[in-house]
Design brief:
There is one protein chain. By secondary structure, the chain is of the alpha+beta class. It is built from 5 helices and 3 strands, in the order H-H-E-E-H-H-E-H. It has one domain (28-123): GIY-YIG endonuclease, CATH 3.40.1440. The chain has helices at 3-9, 16-25, 51-64, 70-79, 103-117; strands spanning 30-37, 43-48, 84-92.
Length: 130
Amino acid sequence: MSSTDDRAARGGPTSRAELKRAYKEKPPPMGVFIIRNRANGKVLVGSALNMPGALNRARFELDRGMSRNLELQEDWRRHGPDSFTFEQLDVLKPPEEPGADPKEELRVLESLWLERLRPYGEAGYNTPPE
């Protein structure tokens, strides 16, 4: 049995076009991420509606020397890209209600991680709450 037959038997998409459409319709993972400097233990905690996109953008900006976080950018230059990891901390399930906005739930989830990890000052790159 071919993989196309296998997918059809399970009720999944069978053609390349169907697979592409299914991929485009699936929302990207959203949630809380961390950029960890293994050289000094400092971390940056953030959240995004599209975590893979946000992490790719952060790496791109750091590689190009364009990060808005100047301290993180300096450590990237000093320690090199191999000293950093980019990780998903917590994934938020897509809302079940059509049209629901997950931004508030995402903000709360990020706040919980910020409170737990306290990535400020010597511990991290986040700006402390006021």
